[in-house]
Structure formats: structure tokens, C-alpha cells
Design goal:
It is built from 16 helices and 17 strands. It is of the alpha/beta class and about 475 residues long. Strand 6 and strand 7 form a beta hairpin. The longest helix is centred in the last third of the chain and has 21 residues, at about 370-390. Bound molecules: cobalamin and iron/sulfur cluster.
């Protein structure tokens, strides 16, 4: 059997000297290394039935760095491929792992995927093709990744078109194959989590010290263990390729994807809760506006095992929502009835100029007086907090402060607006995460800083669901902006 290692690297700054911390420090991140990495488990599970291949799941956020590298040293002779998931914060660590594998045994093949690679494919391959043999862009790549590994096991590699979503360095240039749609992968093989290393013990220990006490205090529930659950992925704003300017989520070829209806969603939730996970982290980037129909039909078709379980014994769900989705009481009620107790919500506060600069509104501001629209959005946020309070939902509020072109006056305006909102949210805001803008690769802000002022936002795939939108940044800023 050949081993194929799927590794979720730790944040680079935690393991590599000189690598800067560009995100919240892991020790300050309440959800850090509390539960299995769904992306890595998905890819490992997809390989479980490939003949001659043993998938090896390693989460570098709980397995110590020297142990991880040592595993590659010890098993080098039997390793077919090392595959790493790369976010911007983890990309350098991912490269170090792949370079290590190549140094130990050059015949080991290396594969990389996830948001950082998707956003910066050209640059990653141009600069690092010495240690990256294959990359995959976007989310819908599980099938092609499995096909690639199966072919590598047979000692062959076909042309890129055989692996939709792949990107390779060939003849001094990047060669890519467009993504194709595929269903959300749900056949998870949980036994892989502890097959090579005991991940569960540290996950549970972290969960018990970070998440469980907080939820006990705020909701009065005792929780055992957490697990991310993907009933859908996407955000309503991706539909028109109109993400907030700081958003670095790479949706790839499909702006939204979901499991096949309410029964499939319930099956997944039942599967998780039967495995004693009682804190389910719904990974969808936005729930009420993007997946409203699915959530409503889940509520209408709730299975007997769920309706027959007392509310206090049901798993607690957490997820993401836009404030304007939550301000609708119908949405809040559906979420609450489905067992969602906590929501991560980005607040849309600020001056009209700031809202526009961050591309926050769902519909264009031009339709009405911008100041009036900003006030309406503010009201939406106040209503969202009121509705959440009425339905017993706790909010983890996020706010990005700063945007390109912001000056002292706008900063003061935004802080004042934010403070008003926080006052309104007393008793319903469980935690507040205020981040200073740090444009990450893949975001509009990053592209604005690194590419010409006007550009075409390229679709990753060629599917019907991707769109091409030409977006122009204001070349003249209002007087209060220095740019
Ligand atoms: C849930 C989540 C978390 C959870 C992870 C839970 C878990 N253990 O699984 C927690 C809260 C722990 C977390 C932590 C972090 N996260 Co996070 N997270 C998400 C979120 C909302 C969903 C990810 C997810 O599970 N999706 C479902 C799974 C199945 O998909 P996936 O992981 O994307 O993997 C698929 C593809 O990407 C691809 N793929 C992924 N890896 C690989 C590797 C190979 C070889 C191949 C072929 C394919 C491939 O195939 C997979 C199957 O479809 C995303 C937003 C988003 N929509 O992506 C942010 C997001 C990925 N996180 C982000 C960040 C910044 C972080 C942190 C760095 C934050 C911090 N301060 O430390 C840490 C990193 C932790 C680490 N080292 O792993 C950013 C990344 C931005 C960027 N450009 O890099 C995102 C996009 C959110 C955002 N915009 O801020 N996160
Ligand atoms: S920041 Fe949130 S609301 Fe804005 S585009 Fe990204 S996921 Fe959607």
C-alpha cells in the first residue's frame, strides 16, 4: 500500500522563524484546533477506496511540527504523495512540508489546494514549482483529486483536462483545466481522523477548555465535541460576483453548492450527532439569504429522530449570517427552530462612503440617497440584533475597520457608528471581533493594491454558475479621503 498524506498545516508563524503573524493569533482564536479539519478529512475520505492507497490524515494544528516532519522521514519509502491545504496564513508552512518531502525523497509527488492557491495560482506555481507538482483551484475538486491520486498509484498522469480544476507548471507556464461542478462530498470516513495520530484527544481537550465553558455559561448547555458540517457553501453576494471588498473567500467555479435537499442535510446532521458530536459548525459562508429555501424545507421536513429528541439533547448548531438576513424574523425563527443557537454576523455599519468602499450593501447604493441607505442599513443591523434577542440567538459579531481610501474623519464616523451598534446589541452580542483591514489574496482590496485600477474579475471555472463582472474602483475619493 502507498501512503497519501493529507495535511492541514498550522499557521506559518507558529512554526517557521521569521514568518509574520498576519491573522488573529491561534491562541486568541476560540475555534482554533478544536475539531477535525473538514477539508482534509473530505480529501482523505475520498481516497479511502482507491486501490493500493492508504490515506493519512494529519492536522498540523494539533500534531507538533517536528512529529509531522518526522512522520514523513520515517515513512518516506512508502509515501506516494504529500498533499497540503493552503490558506494564506498557512501557505509557507505548507511549502515547508512539501519541500521537506521532496528533500527526503524526490519521487514523492506533491499536491496543494485551498484558498491561497486558488487566489494566487500563477504566482504560487511560478515561484514554487520546485516543490509543488500539482495544484487544484476552488472547492469542486474532490473527484479530480481522487482521479489524480488513483492515476499516480498506477504510475501514470494524464493531460490536465482529465483533472478539472488542476493547475500545473509546464514548459515555463501555468497550464490549467477549468473546474466542473460536483456534489458536496458527504461520505466522511471518521475513522481516518485517528488512524495515524490521536487527533481526537487534543481536539476534545481544546474544545473543553475553549468552547464548552463559554457555551455553558451563555446558553446553559453542556457540550462534548464539535465538528464542521457542510450542508452548503457560498454567499448570496457571490451570485453577482459582488463580494465585500475585504472578503477573501474563493468560491471557484460555483457561487453556491449544497447537499441534495433537506433529507440529505438531515442525514448529515444525524450522522454527526450519532458520532456524539453535539456542536455542529455549519461552514456555509451565509445561511439565511443564501440557503433560506433549504433551511425552510429542513424545518418543514424535520425527521422523527429530531422532533422526538428533547431540545436540550439536540446538537447545538452555529453558523454564519448577514445582518440583513437575520433582521427578518421569519429567518431567525427558522434558524432557531433548527437548533442554531449562535451566529457569526458581520455588522454593516459605517458612513455611506465607507459602506460603498467596502462593497457591503447587497444592492447598489445608487438607487437612493446614500446617507439614507446607510441609515437603512444601520436600522437593519439594529433590527437583526433585536430579532436575534427575541429568538434566543447569540451573536459573534465581526467588524472590519478601515478600508482603502479611509481618512481620519471617516475612521471617526465609522467608530461612532460601530459604538452605537454595540450599545444596541447589549445582551445579545456574545463576542466582538474587530479586525483592522488586512487585504488578503483573492479579495478585491488585495487586487486593487496589486493590479491595475480597473480589471476583469476572472471566473475560475467555465461553468454556467460563474460570472464575469467588470468592477471599477472610484478614481476620485470624497474630500475626506487622502487617496
Ligand atoms: C470553518 C472554517 C474554519 C474553521 C476550520 C474548522 C475545521 N477544522 O475544519 C476554523 C474556525 C478552525 C478556521 C480556522 C482558520 N481559518 Co478558516 N474558514 C472556515 C470556513 C468558514 C469554511 C472552511 C471549510 O471547512 N469548508 C468546507 C471544506 C470541506 O472545504 P475546504 O476546507 O475549503 O476544502 C475544500 C477545497 O478548498 C479544496 N481543498 C482544500 N485543501 C486542499 C488541499 C488539496 C491538496 C486539494 C487538492 C484540495 C484542497 O478541496 C476541499 C473539498 O471541497 C472558510 C470560508 C470558506 N468558505 O472557505 C474560512 C477560511 C478558509 N478561513 C480563513 C482563515 C484566515 C483561517 C485562519 C488562518 C484564522 C486564524 N486567525 O488563524 C485559521 C487557519 C487554521 C488552520 N491552520 O487550519 C480564511 C482564509 C483566507 C485566505 N485567503 O487564506 C477563510 C476563507 C475565511 C475568511 N475569508 O476569512 N476556519
Ligand atoms: S464578507 Fe461575508 S457577506 Fe461579504 S461577500 Fe464575504 S461571505 Fe459574503
Amino acid at each position: 500500500m502507498s501512503q497519501v498524506i493529507i495535511v492541514n498545516p498550522p499557521n506559518s508563524n507558529t512554526v517557521l522563524d521569521g514568518s509574520v503573524c498576519t491573522v488573529t493569533r491561534p491562541e486568541d482564536h476560540t475555534d482554533w484546533s478544536n475539531f477535525p479539519s473538514l477539508g482534509a478529512l473530505t480529501l482523505a475520505s475520498a481516497l479511502a477506496d482507491v486501490p493500493g492507497v492508504t490515506p493519512v490524515y494529519i492536522d498540523g494544528t494539533v500534531v507538533p511540527w517536528p512529529t509531522l516532519l518526522e512522520y514523513i522521514d520515517t515513512h518516506a519509502g512508502g509515501i506516494l504523495a504529500v498533499c497540503a491545504s493552503a490558506l494564506t496564513a498557512t501557505y509557507e508552512a505548507a511549502l515547508a512540508i512539501l519541500a521537506h518531502a521532496k528533500a527526503v525523497r524526490p519521487a514523492i509527488r506533491t499536491v496543494v489546494g485551498n484558498d491561497h492557491f486558488t487566489a494566487l495560482t500563477e504566482r504560487c506555481l511560478a515561484n514554487h514549482h520546485a516543490c509543488v507538482d500539482f495544484g487544484f483551484r476552488g472547492n469542486e475538486v474532490v473527484g479530480p483529486f481522487r482521479d489524480l491520486i488513483a492515476d499516480l498509484r498506477l504510475g501514470r498522469v494524464r493531460a490536465p483536462a482529465a483533472y478539472p480544476g488542476i493547475a500545473v507548471w509546464a514548459g515555463g507556464a501555468v497550464v490549467q483545466a477549468p473546474q466542473r461542478p460536483e456534489p458536496v462530498f458527504t461520505a466522511l470516513r471518521h475513522e481516518l481522523v485517528d488512524a495515524a495520530f490521536d487527533h481526537t484527544t487534543p481536539y476534545k481537550a481544546n474544545f473543553q477548555t475553549r468552547v464548552a465553558p463559554r457555551l455553558r455559561k451563555m446558553l446553559g448547555v453542556d457540550l462534548r465535541a464539535g465538528m464542521p458540517v457542510e450542508i452548503g457553501r457560498g454567499c448570496i453576494k457571490f451570485r453577482r460576483d459582488d463580494a465585500c471588498s475585504f472578503c477573501s473567500i474563493q468560491f471557484g467555479g460555483m457561487w453556491k453548492n449544497a447537499v441534495d435537499g433537506p433529507e440529505a442535510a438531515w442525514r448529515l446532521i444525524e450522522h454527526m450527532s450519532r458520532r456524539t458530536y453535539d456542536y455542529l459548525y455549519l461552514t456555509a459562508d451565509e445561511l439565511p439569504l443564501t440557503f433560506g429555501a433549504l433551511l425552510r424545507s429542513m424545518y418543514e421536513q424535520a425527521p422523527p429522530w429530531w422532533t422526538g429528541t428533547p431540545e436540550s439533547d439536540r446538537p447545538v448548531m452555529v453558523g454564519y449570517a448577514r445582518a440583513d438576513g437575520l433582521s427578518n424574523p421569519r429567518h431567525a425563527e427558522t434558524l432557531r427552530r433548527l437548533g442554531v443557537r449562535q451566529l457569526m454576523v458581520g455588522l454593516d455599519a459605517g458612513s455611506p462612503v465607507s459602506l460603498k468602499a467596502m462593497n457591503k450593501p447587497l444592492s447598489p447604493l445608487k438607487e437612493a440617497d446614500p446617507a439614507h441607505r446607510a441609515e437603512l442599513m444601520f436600522e437593519h443591523n439594529v433590527r437583526a440584533m433585536r430579532t436575534a434577542r427575541e429568538h434566543g440567538l447569540l451573536l459573534k459579531v465581526g467588524f472590519v475597520i478601515g478600508h482603502l481610501g479611509m481618512g481620519p474623519e471617516l475612521l471617526a464616523d465609522n467608530i461612532a457608528s460601530m459604538r452605537r451598534l454595540v450599545d444596541e446589541g447589549k445582551g445579545v452580542i456574545a463576542s466582538l471581533d474587530v479586525e483592522v483591514l488586512s487585504p488578503e489574496p483573492g479579495s478585491l482590496d488585495y487586487r486593487y493594491l496589486t493590479e491595475p485600477v480597473s480589471y476583469t474579475h476572472p471566473p475560475v471555472g467555465g461553468t454556467a454558475t460563474s460570472s464575469t463582472a467588470r468592477r471599477r474602483w472610484p478614481t476620485t475619493w470624497p474630500r475626506s479621503c487622502p487617496a
